[in-house]
Amino acid sequence: MNNIDFGNYLFQLRKDNNLTQRxxxxxxxxxxxxxxxxETGKSKPDLExxxxxxxxxxxxxxxxxxxxxxxxKVKVSxxxxxxxxCAGKTTALTWIDNYFSKRGYSVLKxxxxxxxxxxxxxxxxxxxxxxxxxxxxxxxxxxxxxxxxDAAKKMKNDKILIVCDRGVLDNKAYMKxxxxxxxxxxxxxxxxxxxxxxxxxxxxxxxxxxxxxxxxLANNRARTESVEEAQALDNRIISxxxxxxxxxxxxxxxxxxxxxxxxxxEIASFLGEPEPFExxxxxxxxxxxxxxxxxxxxxxxxDISQTYLKSKNNVERRIRARGINGDYLYYLTExxxxxxxxRIETERKLxxxxxxxxxMEADTKLHTIHKTRYCISENNQYFEIDIYPExxxxxxxEVELNSEDEDIKIPQYIKxxxxxxxxxxxxxxxxxxEMPKELVRKxxx
Length: 445
What we know:
Layout: H1 3-16, H2 21-28, H3 32-40, H4 47-57, H5 61-67, E1 75-83, H6 89-101, E2 106-110, H7 113-118, H8 130-152, E3 159-165, H9 177-186, H10 191-195, E4 200-204, H11 227-241, E5 247-250, H12 256-271, E6 277-286, H13 290-295, E7 299-308, E8 316-324, E9 327-337, E10 342-350, H14 352-358, E11 369-378, E12 381-387, E13 394-400, E14 416-419, H15 428-431, H16 436-444
Parallel strand pairs: 1-3, 1-4, 2-3, 4-5
Antiparallel strand pairs: 6-10, 6-13, 6-14, 7-8, 7-11, 8-9, 9-10, 11-12, 12-13
């Protein structure tokens, strides 16, 4: 893309966000004239300014790089491999590399930042405060990931898998919530933007949870936790990532090799090797205590607006705005039903511009679904409770499963009315056919 077209793109992004050149200049610590030159194609921002523009306009940096014409388009998937202490991540990374390299991927592994820092003298106990250390770690993590993102676009292969040995949200487990928010604000970003910048999260449970005999400090110089501390830390890490749209927990219910095989299966399914299956069950539940949910450390709230598009080739298509407190990311999802429990589902992130463009393809016979979702990680399973504004007595809960015969461990505070997995009337697509007032009357019966 030439300079003028790229300038027009920046101009449109600014207008879409209702911002002035003066405001953008202030946020990026440049002059109004510099912003004007970018938008008229007389000059281009450097990489650091592009990063700030991406955050300001709420678009992935890759969009600006691709619009700049400096990078070819390749299929890049970035996942996080996280977990509690002594979870098997080091071995898992080797398995992932071997498995997906044989399937045509270039696997790029971002090393664990905490280990890099601590083993080289920068640690919570050598810095003036834990806050300082964690902020250093977040900064280095983001810098490393950016380098790997940039390198991915320069690879000869067109299938790239970036595997981050932990991600930015892991730091939340080691900080107070207010400290974490403060650190992200100082870095010009937010929790939801960092969390959902990754395509998928895979958590390996610590050996301290169910395989205590195998828990050891010997194979990692940065590990210092006792069994009890490791269990608590594992739970905090799960809580930190809860809310991500694709979060999977790999527990210790099997021997270690089978645990890693389950991990590979989950990643392969996510990548669509051979096809991306989603397995879930759905339940109608009594309206939960919202205050209790919002006070739970393992529960995260997100707002969702879901609009259905005109179907193509019998494939259900929808777009979503997903976020909280003004920070939103956008997705296009396409689903094809295989069985009542199993569907082929593909999803990709959208820019705000792409989202607004796709809104023009909305199926006018269907209404936009608005709901608040509470994501809960408990008993090594992931539950999603959807609260609809038109309902005040009931809600819908989904649980994502690894297999169709997996047992579900319903939390005690959830009261089931009935399972509705096979009841089409509780699918969002069917609800979108009814007016909100009709839904209220229907729920009141």
